[in-house]
Amino acid sequence: MTQPTYQKLRGGYYTPEPIARFLASWAICSPADRVLEPSCGDGNILVAAARRLQSLGVASETLNQQLHGVELDSQEAAQAAHRLQSLGLFLTANNTIHVGDFFAHCQCDLFGEKVLTLVLKERQHFDAVIGNPPFIRYQNFPEDHRQIAFSLMEQAGLHPNRLTNAWLPFLVVGSLLLNENGRLAMVIPAELFQVNYAAETRQFLSDYYSRVALVTFKQLLFKDIQQEVVLLLAERNHTSNDGIRTIELDGIEDLDTLTLARLNAIELKPMNHSTEKWTQYFLDSDEIRLLREMRDHPGVTLSNQVLDVDVGIVTGRNAFFVLAQNQVESYDLEPYLERIVSRSAHLTGAIFGAADWQSNAEEQLPAFLFTPAALSTTDLPEPLRQYIALGETQGYHKGYKCRIRQRWYVVPSVWVPDAFMLRQVHAYPKLVLNIAQAVCTDTIHRVRFLNGANGEAVTAAFLNSLTFAFAEVTGRSYGGGVLTFEPSEAEALPLPLAGAEHLDLEHIDKLLRDNNIDAVLEITDDVLLVQGLGLNRNQVRQLRKIWSKLRDRRINRK
């Protein structure tokens, strides 16, 4: 197994100069501002902040009284100090740059606990907090630092868990260190918009700040990682024009033309003080309003009322368990097999029938799941014993998912779903009715229909502009432009079901196989949205526009 790099363990991807310059220019408004960088690295943001204060008339010899940075890595801190000294700053020990854990440094000042404190010895809060906090997953977040960080979040009313990334407590605690009129400017993963583990933080931000701006980019800013980031600009106690605004730029070079006047000219949308995902704020106010009206429409059903979504089969080693026809024949594994779909690309229509599975098998696609009886190898037929022994020579039985089983070669939770749902989608989500009685790997979700729901009707009804629009604000998208759904997110999608029994699923299936989703929507939107929900044509067009706008934004990011 490849060991994580030091850079990955510490979560450090340093801030490009144009971003540091923009954040400092926006956040620092007065020559009297006191500034904090809670994870300063080698000093890019602190240098930009120093230059911003100098441009406002602050003398170099007094800058160290207004700038404060914290850095865990002593070598990085020394480099940051050297860069600031080159600007004429006189740095005293533990004055401008403090070496150590940010959370330990500031804990005492927030909640009065007796923890060593260097940053806020006189309980002075900051006018600006600027940063690019580290992206460190729970398992790589050092426990002693994590415990303090999580304790601070909990005392602020939040509930961090094993999904909480290190950037979240940096964002929350950094916010708490602002004075009553302070500004926060941070480089934050776009996960803030859409992941469930950041839901509480979204609500915290909407309650804590009166005005928020989100600057996003079509291009990935950090080429070494497939991680989309945004610039979060948040203001406390702004006296007028409260709300949230978004702007999308092509790349960081466009920041030089993003003036304060241009930013302030962008429409402010009312912030919903809830855990809702923020992807919706890329829409216009009237589009957001329509989605909220549709969510509350009495004719709309939540997916979890008619279907249960579960992850697909986790084999632990697809190379051993998921086989092509020629492998099955070579190892003589009949009849210890199940039909399986191993990739979403093998589901081209809205129906997966026996002929589809047979076609996959004939094309030598992985179409068979090896499912020996739950017996000791001594009680299995000789061909199976030989195949299992072959797997052990490859070390497959030592993999984590396999070794925790009573018998490593017996895959658990193998059952035939009523339908499949794509876990990751490019253009649009869909259900696929499972006529072939196949199982699927965990690249695809398994669906059971509930409460006597008509599977054909629900499968057809899933394909409509309303559900597609909500899919874009319910699922999550990362750097590659793919839309991903966890089972709970899939179950939260609104479905218009009135009139669904009149839809012809076989005809819809044929249109999908011909890559004609537009023709499908013309049919389903008329039956489900116009006739079923009573929407007018303009509302239907608006829902389709919402879907295409958010889909295109997602796909076009590079």
Structural summary, described in words:
By secondary structure, this protein is an alpha/beta fold. The chain has two domains: 6-282, Rossmann fold (3-Layer(aba) Sandwich), CATH 3.40.50; 309-314 and 347-352 and 416-556, no CATH class. Helices cover 37% and strands 17% of the residues. The protein is built from 22 helices and 22 strands. α5 (102-111) runs parallel beside α6 (143-155) and α18 packs parallel to α22 (537-556). The relative contact order is 0.08.
Number of helices: 22
Strand content: 15-25%
Task: Give the spatial strand order of the biggest sheet.
Answer: 3-2-1-4-5-7-6-8
- Gap between N and C termini: 29 Å
Computed CA radius of gyration, to the nearest angstrom: 27 Å
CATH superfamily of the largest domain: Vaccinia Virus protein VP39
What is the count of structural domains? 2
Mean of residue pLDDT values: 90
Number of strands: 22
CATH class of the largest domain: Alpha Beta
Q: Could you say which structural class the secondary elements and strand pairing correspond to?
A: alpha/beta
Low-confidence stretches: 1-11, 113-123
CATH architecture of the largest domain: 3-Layer(aba) Sandwich
Work out the helicity level: 25-40%
- Using the alpha-carbon principal axes, give the shape: globular
CATH topology of the largest domain: Rossmann fold
Notable characteristics:
558 residues, alpha/beta, Rossmann fold, 2 domains, 8-stranded mixed sheet, 5-stranded mixed sheet, 22 helices, 17% strand, globular
